[in-house]
Amino acid sequence: MLPVLFLSGLIAAPAIAAQPRLGGEGQAHAGLMWPSEPPANYCQAGVMPSGPAAPPQGAIVVPAGDNSGFDFRRAGVTFWFEPGVHTLGTDKYSQIIAQDGNTYLGGPGAIIDGQNRNHYAFTNTAQNVVVRYLTIRNFGRYSDDPTEDYGNFDQGVVNHDAGDHWTIEYNTIANNRGAGVFLGSHNKVSFNCLKDNGQYGFSMYKKPLQSEGPPTPEQPAPGRSAIVDIELSHNEIAGNNVDDWEASTKCGCTGGGKFWDVRGAKIVGNYVHDNRGTGLWADTNNIDFLFENNYIRDNAGVGIWYEISYNATIRANTFINNGWTSGTSDLGAPAPAIYLSESGGDSRLPKDVSGSDLLRIYDNYFENNFSGVSIYESSNRFCNSNGNTSQVYCTPFVHPALIVRPDPKNPSKYPDPVSHLHPCYTQINGDAALQRDCRWHAKNIEVTGNEFYFDPAVVPCGSSSFCGAQALYATGDNNLSWSPYTAQQVQNDVMFNNNNRFANNHYYGPWRFAKRYGETMSFKSWQAAPYLQDAGSTTDGSSFNLLDPQTATLEASAGLWTAWYGSRIARADVGHGGAHSLQVVAEDSYWGVALANHPGYLSDNAAKRLSFWVKRVAGTPPLPANARVRLRWLKEDGKPATGDEETSFSDVSLGAAGDEWTQVVADVQPPALTASVWVLLVGSGGSANHNASFYLDDIVLQDAPQ
Known about the structure:
This protein is mainly beta. The chain has seven helices and 52 strands. The protein is 6% helix and 34% strand.
């Protein structure tokens, strides 16, 4: 342990250098540029272009007012909706049943209003349909019970039946229940305002397709996608999931929008913001995606979530302030700007849109998201496992690609397989190819050339150890007796064997880096063996505080501090850097105060610097000379890091605190196997020290300067 320094008086903490901003002078980035402002503002007043003021030649005029008796059952025609409000009747199934080749065109200010009576606006599986220049609002009925069908749960208002070859442009689709728009194959949804809808701005679903035969050398991926070739471009997607379906269903099915079982998707130039939940979510066997030039900010959950899916390029996007709500509500998850969950690249699958058989994240800008990029795999999430939430789906490489439950009304329970007949149970333990292909892998991922900014004074980190983190990790329980996979094997694969690489990124602020189960480490440890991540990357040298803000500053609460033995604590209205501090009263000869988070904060074995401010409470007995902060270093299993209780700690003296605020700074060296640190305050003395009291404030435990 290096010498302890006692610094008297008020010494300000080093200021964090001002952060460069988008395209600023001296910006380290040299690749594609991300948008510096929202590329689509179609929900803003006066931005959405108006439709034609007069009906096009040959168009059928739809008069404003009650259209419940109007004949929409004509194919291959253009309907021009007069300016004004149009209604479709009072029945919940009053709707426009689209016909092949029709165009539905709004005049200036044309509105189709569902009156919160009709469920859907445009339905049917008709093809080659165009919907333009309309405001479509108030479809789906309100109810005090959101589980009733009034909520349009998992239903779409426009293109309800996911018809193919639809073009949906220049519309305001807002304040509907369910999803504003559904997409089918060869759909283009562009230049729209998708705002304040009950579940999603957009979504999609078609009945999954069964594979036609086993894999062959000519057809190594026999699985077939339900939806192909879609484009979502230049839309403003804002404020969706107003009905907060997660609160009532825990469905994992809300946010700005969701892609499901899609091959070939371009998601370009959208402004995705202020959605309650995930911004853009691709879930289950999505293949060959491009996310480019999107501006994604202030979503309550993840910015982009790519889940059990393949071959994507995420480039030249802007991510700001995402994940704040989900990060503070679920302290065991990273809530990143980009979440790659059991997803990666595979050369056996198409790359026509993404341009690569890798999963690439490059040339993006990240600012003050709850965390950065998380690469994750659950050891128990594979096809035919009840640990897979998309239970009837298998990967594209296995036949049958759809798993038939033996008894749909009484599905099997975890840890049993979904089906005792599927090869991802009957053959998985004896077939290396099935062991590979029955899993969705976090594999072949590149995170390169991005800029990451993080300011913990801005982001509401709370006590989460994932806040401000990049993550490459896996979890799972080894409780599936029939599974050939173990959590440790999957962790090692994700970390070391799956060709997952961070490189040539630029970090500003106190970033941390998480591995295995999510244990965090310093940038130096992350770059060093055995991890060898972020080669060529740079950092401004900022270190994160291992202690959560409340425990460190006591400004909003007493944090994790708790009286242990022979002591009493309180949150005092006396502070060093703020208005409050921790007051400790040593009531007995032997006393201790602990943090209620044994085995402590995630740590690593890099040298650490502990600093804090301390002051004796005036009029109380002196502190014993051995009053100290004890840092107890622990291994991953919670046992002493050296194997011996007596050598697995570092002590830093309080310095028999005087009556003025004094800063104590000490550099300490954790043992080699350190995975966490438990922080204690301890001391012992005679009767003259009974009821000695002191204030403690602004405690920082971080990597020591290089």
